[in-house]
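Hey, weird one. I pasted the Short-subunit dehydrogenase sequence into the form twice and got a warning about non-standard characters only the second time. First submission, copied straight from the form history:
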Amino acid sequence: MSKTIGSLAGSTILITGAAMGMGKMYARLAVEDNASRVILWDVNAELLEATARELEGRGSQIHTQVVDVSRLEVIERAAEKTRAEAGSPDILINNAGIVRGKYFWEHDQRTDIAATMNINTLALMHITREFLPAMIERGRTSRIVNVASAAGLLANPRMSIYSSSKWAVVGWSDSLRLELIQAGHKHVAVTTFCPSYINTGMFKGARGPLLTPMLEPEAVTQRVWRAMKEGTPMLMMPWTVKLSTALRGVLPLAAWDAVAGRVFGVYKSMEHFTGRQ
């Protein structure tokens, strides 16, 4: 297991989706933790600049790039620029993501299906592929955090595309963790984060299942930060995500559908979803 990170002094961290919400909170934590260089990627130029202004003058060098992570060629150019201007990151937080809450047949193939898979899944792979070789070669303690979802562990109506994108992240991220261990690169630790609904506005209108209230982003980012520094392989929040995953694994499918649908209310949680407008 990779050793626990103390201070981020001397480290470079890259955060995607960093202009608002939890990405911005991770950026604040990086500055508070004395990171030498904090690299912020986001598609929203105005909010990105505002976030940078908030963080400047607190001891960390702040670097910003407007990046549409849905496009590989844009990622490649941004990664090249990042390496030239700030160096390759020691810590990568793949945070950017979108959600579409509809029945499968209601999705537009480009703006919903392709966009969700490109941003939620392929972007994480492409960005990690850009920076992982340097992490391996340097030999010093490094971290990758991949934001998945409880929806990547359990199916749910009106989330077929989102769930698919996050199931792929869970499988890829944990496989990457094992590959690094097997290849002897234990200094690079991968954390796969699987939360239920978080109260950021992204899931506005969604209702948490039984015993699963909406998570508060400040508490979540603090917990993820600790897991990142400790090199925790997988973090599920709240505890009911683990319970649901265990029940899904042991119950017959018809029984699980009854429990998830009628008892826990999982299958009704997206009925009133509106999302961030």
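That's the output from the first submission. The warning seems to come from a hidden character in my clipboard, not from the data itself. The first strand starts at residue 12 and ends at 16.
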